[in-house]
Specification:
With 262 residues, the chain is of the alpha/beta class. It contains eight helices and eleven strands. The chain has a seven-stranded mixed sheet, sandwiched between helices. A four-stranded antiparallel sheet has the order 6-7-8-9.
Length: 262
């Protein structure tokens, strides 16, 4: 499914890196914390003897490539062709055998896997209705007793201070582009919505400065709300953690990492 079709159905919008600036996706998402998250994911999957993994929101492949190094057979899926092109180029450079598919986690049936993962707040880009649809489809893509592992911001911990701390202001250069990215966010706690406002100043060598404003919204959840939605779609909760693998604390943990089983 292409970006345009996804945007038509998804009222929340998307970060600009998914559409116009895919080369900056890794700059934004691949940080020191990513390595910690990936190690937590691998540790949990190995605990349950997982061998095959479907990454339903793979982006440029951070979790896919990490798990591949540990011997997992991983298939990556994303709705963004530009991000998938970057992932496939990494495969070619490293001479690996990894399959990346263009698809929509709400409806694509790839096969049967020991685990499905959706990381980087991926489910937040879905409305609650679409998340329920996605849960049903994830169920179809899992082996019996298969695992679903995902993260999302914790609504109970989203104080004004925490939301303010999500702000970003950085300058990065990738190839022939220099980008100054400024972002701030607001929250509607009643609806569980975080809206981020981006301002990009793009300086491309040989071109005039380009300024782009972008807005996107994430649906976030309370831990108990996730438990209920998962149960309604045939899953049982095994445990909820912080994204760093530490004990989940209802009013303190910023990112919930949920492990559920079919």
């Amino acid at each position: 499914m292409n970006n345009e079709k996804y945007d038509e159905k998804n009222e929340f919008g998307l970060p600009l890196e998914y559409k116009k600036l895919p080369e900056f996706f890794d700059v934004h998402n691949i940080t020191n914390k990513t390595e910690i998250t990936n190690r937590v994911i691998e540790k949990l999957l190995s605990k349950y003897d997982v061998r095959t993994v479907l990454d339903f929101s793979c982006g440029t492949g951070s979790q896919v490539f990490f798990l591949n190094k540990f011997g997992y057979k991983v298939t990556g899926v994303d709705f963004s062709p530009p991000l998938l092109e970057i992932a496939r180029n990494k495969v070619l450079r490293e001479n690996l055998s990894i399959n990346f598919l263009d698809g929509d986690m709400r409806k694509l049936e790839v096969g049967k896997f020991d685990a499905v993962i959706t990381i980087f707040n991926a489910i937040g880009h879905l409305t609650k209705t679409d998340f329920n649809i996605t849960l049903k489809n994830i169920y179809k893509n899992l082996n019996d007793e298969g695992l679903y592992l995902f993260d999302i911001f914790n609504l109970e911990a989203m104080t004004d201070t925490v939301v303010n701390n999500l702000s970003m202001d950085y300058k990065k250069t990738v190839k022939d582009k220099r980008v100054h990215h400024i972002q701030h966010s607001t929250i509607n706690k009643d609806k569980g919505l975080i809206t981020s406002y981006d301002n990009y100043i793009i300086d491309k060598i040989g071109s005039t400065l380009e300024r782009i404003n972008n807005k996107f919204t994430l649906q976030i959840y309370k831990a108990k709300e996730l438990q209920l939605m998962l149960a309604e779609n045939g899953f049982k909760i095994l445990k909820q953690y912080g994204i760093d693998g530490l004990e989940f604390k209802e009013y303190q943990t910023i990112n919930i990492l949920t492990l559920a089983q079919k």
